[in-house]
Design a protein that fits this description.
Layout: H1 2-11, H2 13-41, E1 56-60, E2 63-70, E3 73-80, H3 89-96, E4 100-104, E5 107-111, E6 114-122, E7 133-136, E8 144-148, E9 156-159, E10 162-170, E11 178-181, H4 183-189, E12 195-199, H5 202-208, E13 214-217, H6 231-268, H7 270-278, H8 283-322, H9 337-362, H10 382-405, H11 413-442, H12 444-448, H13 453-463, H14 465-503, E14 508-511, H15 532-539, E15 544-558, E16 562-570, H16 573-579, E17 584-587, E18 596-600, E19 611-615, E20 621-630, E21 639-641, E22 651-658, H17 664-674, E23 677-680, H18 681-688, H19 694-725, H20 727-735, H21 740-779, H22 790-815, H23 820-824
Parallel strand pairs: 6-11, 8-10, 16-21, 18-20
Antiparallel strand pairs: 1-12, 1-13, 2-3, 4-12, 5-6, 7-10, 8-11, 9-10, 14-22, 14-23, 15-16, 15-19, 15-22, 17-20, 19-20
């Protein structure tokens, strides 16, 4: 059997070349994924930047740690606080007895017309990075600053804190854009100091801070005082999720392509297997032959894929760093286990892909040796029908259960990425039963046109069901993945925009100057708000009702095992009710007070009148009564509290509603004079329209790129196989009087018909997936349209059409170089 397999691979190299390339690519991507994961797990410890030379850094309480229990196991859940606390004055007094204490203050600096994110600091902290003067001098007066070398001494900057003059510059260190003020001026602009540098022995500092709610940082732990210290960890987590998704899709599409290719190859070789049966080969020997072929292809392709993965992983890591998906220090390590994982997975994929085909090959009867017709009498086997129907039923049942029990689950990325694969597999398995009626429907109109061309296209595609199903399968994968993934994000984004539009009833929304849209950075140093004077002016403009709100968070322990953070808005209830229409399921906004909270239906306890124990944004524990309950929506409804329950939060948004008779133009002018960036309701809705985040966008591009590449490989391979198998059919057409051009046109039209069949099936899968998501949104009280990405679908379908036509017409044209009489006598 091994000898026969080797000779089959040599004589039918075109049949297996596409499978070899597809499997090699899949193994290479799995190797890259494994190498990336291994490198992220072995990531070097991050070195401190802002306080690289500081002896000791003391931070106020900036995390919340709560004990949790699962059975007999007790652990602690920790979350970063929305509003870190300052170092207590008593602690500062103790530390000053040990040595010099320098207060660090970080605050945003907004320059008119400059989108650059600038962070202000006291000049005394510059030496700990260290920053060194490259031109000019240090600041000495309140109106003087030192910046990085993007500016020059003597230049004046107009900030929302007033006009300042640059008196010196320092070399940029790459991790921030600093603006250094005098210590006194920085203290005026940012009175709260959440961390200190202490020039004293670390042991003495720890002893002095013992029992206090502070963190003492030394050594590499000082990186926790850098801007956004969790940035690297979050980037690595997002990168692993991206490549993990790509790896999962790669494995799925690899099995799909390999199985489809082997199934078609077995169908083409019915006469060959029939001759072997006539010669005395047993069904087991036939199956072992097919499996041996797959084993040989799998070993060679997996080995090749590991080599390609070793070459491609460093380059992909460089790309991830360049586009900001990975930290700038990220490199590929020297782990060996990813190669083993990729090689054996590739070999398993090859064997899994050929199991069904080998079973069908073993059932080939001796009568198949005499068969000449290319019509598929029974393309749908009982096993294929049962598997396809079972998967379709599974998809339907799980969708129904999700809609009944937890509609929000369908909105999660892991769900709308994985669910299409089940439907794609089900539809692909059932494709032979769908191809014939769908082909006749698509080709009905061309068949009515004068001439025999349209009729031949319809009958050839409908008669060769196996060939049509095998060619339509990769198109189905690409179209379905494109429509389902891009359509899911577009539908979800549109639903979120609808929520914002329905909730915002204010005529104007004012945000701090320098911003152009909703704020909410994770880094407290970058959070900005209105100053007291501007806020007072905005609240006292005649003819308006103003609701000033701030961004905060609350934390709740659910079931004693999970510490959940919920984004919160702090607002006064009466102005809030006048400027917003919250999606309430129960209760009233006016019932909100300092002893209550508005939650949403996702909370474990969400009945009006119940009491919930929460931790506020600064870590303060408090029991609050539920005043009202919002619907779940898309999951971003969060909670509402009063300003008294959002200590440390700054007002970052003012919604303004006009009273009857007020002049909108005059009010808008007054708002601009008061200070801030003024947006109309429509402008705010447009500015708030969610977009697909960068990691998700790159992840989907990678996934769809893989799918399209596999489609190209599969289409090219299967088209070449199909064209070579139809040499005699084309010759008969030539002998019947068809010109060479007419024959090629017929072949191209058949290819386009097959692409249309695959596209229609892919669109069906897309509609089912997005329909389920739309149903979930309706159950969650979100009214938004279903968004099908027609331009992207047209692009990928067009690319599939081009590939199909090229790789069907080219082999046919090559074959017809010989005389038609010679071709008509050709045998397999």
């Amino acid at each position: 059997m091994l000898t026969i397999a080797l000779r089959t691979l040599r004589t039918r190299w075109s049949t297996f070349s596409g499978t070899f390339v597809a499997l090699s690519l899949g193994v290479a991507l799995l190797a890259v994924m494994g190498l990336t994961l291994a490198s992220s797990l072995d990531a070097p410890q991050r070195q401190p930047k802002r306080f690289a030379t500081a002896p000791v850094v003391v931070q106020g309480q900036n995390t919340l740690s709560v004990p949790t229990s699962i059975g007999a196991d007790v652990s602690r859940e920790t979350r970063r606080l929305a509003h870190p606390r300052a170092v207590p004055e008593a602690t500062v007094a103790k530390l000053k007895k040990l040595g010099t204490v320098i207060a660090d203050r970080s605050f945003p600096v907004r320059i008119e017309g400059d989108p650059r994110g600038l962070i202000g600091h006291p000049w005394s902290t510059a030496a700990f990075a260290p920053y060194e003067i490259t031109a000019g001098r240090a600041p000495r007066a309140p109106g003087e600053v030192v910046t990085a070398d993007w500016a020059h001494p003597g230049q004046r900057l107009h900030t929302r804190h007033g006009t300042v003059t640059i008196v010196g510059t320092v070399s940029s260190l790459g991790f921030e854009n600093p603006v250094f003020y005098t210590d006194a001026h920085a203290a005026e602009l940012s009175p709260k100091s959440t961390q200190l540098v202490v020039e004293a022995d670390a042991t003495d500092v720890r002893q002095a801070a013992k029992g206090e709610s502070v963190h003492v940082l030394t050594g590499n732990a000082r990186h926790l005082a850098d801007p956004d210290p969790d940035r690297d960890r979050e980037a690595l987590t997002a990168m692993n999720a991206l490549f993990g998704t790509a790896g999962g899709v790669t494995a799925f599409v690899s099995v799909f392509v390999v199985a489809s290719t082997f199934a078609f190859a077995v169908a083409q070789r019915r006469r060959e297997f029939g001759l072997l049966r006539t010669a005395g080969a047993t069904p087991g020997q036939i199956r072992r032959t097919v499996c041996a072929e797959a084993l040989l292809v799998g070993v060679l392709a997996s080995a090749t894929g590991c080599v390609v993965g070793a070459y491609g992983a460093p380059r992909l890591a460089d790309w991830a760093v360049d586009v900001g998906l990975a930290p700038d220090w990220f490199t590929i390590g020297d782990s060996k286990w990813p190669y083993h994982m990729a090689f054996w997975t590739g070999l398993l994929v090859a064997l899994l892909g050929v199991i069904a085909a080998s079973w069908r090959a073993g059932r080939t009867g001796t009568a198949q040796a005499l068969r000449e017709a290319s019509v598929d009498a029974r393309a749908m086997t009982r096993g294929r029908l049962l598997c396809g129907a079972g998967l379709l039923l599974t998809a339907a049942v799980t969708l129904a259960l999700s809609l009944v029990t937890d509609p929000g689950e369908l909105l999660h990325r892991k769900t709308y990425v994985s669910r299409p694969m089940v439907l794609i597999t089900a539809v692909a398995l059932l494709a032979p039963a769908l191809v014939r009626p769908l082909t006749r429907l698509i080709a009905w109109l061309p068949a009515q046109l004068p001439g025999a061309g349209g009729m031949l296209v319809r009958e050839n595609a409908a008669a060769g069901v196996r060939r049509t199903a095998a060619l339509a399968a990769p198109v189905l994968v690409t179209v379905a993945l494109t429509g389902s993934l891009l359509g899911a994000t577009a539908t979800l984004n549109e639903a979120k925009a609808t929520e914002t539009r329905e909730r915002t009833t204010a005529d104007f929304v004012v945000i701090p100057a320098g911003n152009t849209g909703p704020t909410g950075s994770k880094d407290p140093a970058e959070n900005t708000g209105f100053d007291a004077q501007t806020l007072q002016q905005l609240r006292t403009i005649p003819g308006t009702t103003a609701s000033a709100t701030s961004s905060s968070a609350v934390y709740v322990l659910e079931d004693g095992v999970a510490l959940i953070r919920s984004e919160a808005r702090a607002a006064e209830p009466a102005p809030l009710a006048a400027t917003a229409d919250l999606p309430l399921a129960a209760g009233e906004v006016s019932d909100l007070d300092d002893g209550s909270i508005i939650v949403n239906e996702e909370w474990e306890r969400h009945t009006v009148g119940q009491t919930v124990d929460v931790w506020l944004g600064d870590g303060t524990r408090k029991s609050l009564r539920i005043a009202a309950v919002m619907t779940t929506g898309t999951g971003d409804n969060g909670v509402y509290v009063t300003p008294a329950n959002a200590p440390g939060a700054h007002v970052d948004r003012v919604d303004v509603t006009l009273v009857a008779g007020a002049d909108p133009a005059a009010v808008a002018d007054e708002l601009r004079r008061a200070g801030g960036h003024v947006l109309t309701r429509d402008q705010w809705v447009r500015a708030s329209h969610p977009g697909t985040d960068r990691n998700t966008r790159y992840g989907f591009l990678l996934v769809l790129g893989i799918a399209l590449l596999y489609t190209g490989i599969s289409l090219a391979n299967t088209m070449v196989m199909a064209s070579s198998d139809r040499v005699r059919d084309l010759a008969v057409l030539r002998l019947a009087g068809a010109t060479r051009r007419q024959v090629l046109r017929l072949v191209g039209a058949e290819a386009l018909t097959v692409v249309a069949v695959g596209g229609a099936l892919g669109l069906l899968v897309t509609a089912i997936n997005l329909g389920g998501m739309r149903g979930a949104l309706g159950l969650l009280s979100v009214h938004g349209p279903m968004r099908i990405p027609w331009p992207e679908l047209a692009t990928v379908t067009g690319a599939c059409a081009v590939l199909a036509v090229v790789f069907s017409v080219a082999p046919a044209a090559w074959a017809m170089r010989r005389r038609a009489v010679e071709l008509a006598g050709t045998r397999e």
